[in-house]
Specification:
By secondary structure, the chain is mainly β. About 15% of the residues lie in helices and about 40% in strands. The strands form 2 sheets. Strands 1-6-5-9-8-7-11 form a 7-stranded mixed beta barrel.
């Protein structure tokens, strides 16, 4: 298997307040301290940013026979296609930004509020996406290249 897999950043979203709607952005700042600036999770930790694959989202929606906007998932970043299942410890590079994948984003009951059965449909193959910790900040913009590196953080040198 190749060490790196590439995709494109096709969505950026923040939720300014708990329980609020997602706001789509064309650009966003990411910092080690705040994660995605303006998002309600703006603090250090293992769940600073969530990311999902549009391909996986489409599979989940197709399984239900519906078309739902990706922001219904409430993820921060949307990429066109990446193999995210069992990717804990791997890194994502988007321009200068480096994210460590810290685990699966478990679908919660709020998904069934968006559409009945969505929670269950997101469970296979990590369709709900991944949680990430910011290793190095920078600016994100739609259309940027996203690189998934299957080496663990200990196997890489980011000059952080």
């Amino acid at each position: 298997m190749d060490r790196e897999v590439c995709a494109n950043l096709i969505g950026i979203g923040i939720r300014p307040a708990a329980g609020g709607n997602m706001n789509e952005l064309e650009r966003a700042q990411v910092t080690v301290d705040t994660g995605l600036e303006g998002d309600k999770r703006s603090r250090p930790g293992r769940r600073q940013i969530t990311l999902m694959s549009e391909a996986a989202w489409s599979e989940a929606c197709a399984e239900l026979g519906v078309t739902l906007h990706w922001t219904q998932r409430r993820a921060n970043l949307l990429v066109d296609a990446l193999p995210l299942e069992h990717s804990t410890g791997q890194t994502l590079r988007i321009g200068d930004v480096v994210l460590e994948i810290t685990g699966e984003t478990d679908p919660c009951g709020k998904m069934d509020t968006a559409h009945r059965g969505l929670c269950r449909s997101l469970q296979p193959q990590w369709r709900g996406g991944v949680t990430c910790k910011v290793i190095r900040g920078g600016e994100l913009a739609l259309g940027m290249r996203v690189i998934l590196d299957n080496r663990t953080m200990q196997q890489q040198d980011f000059g952080v």
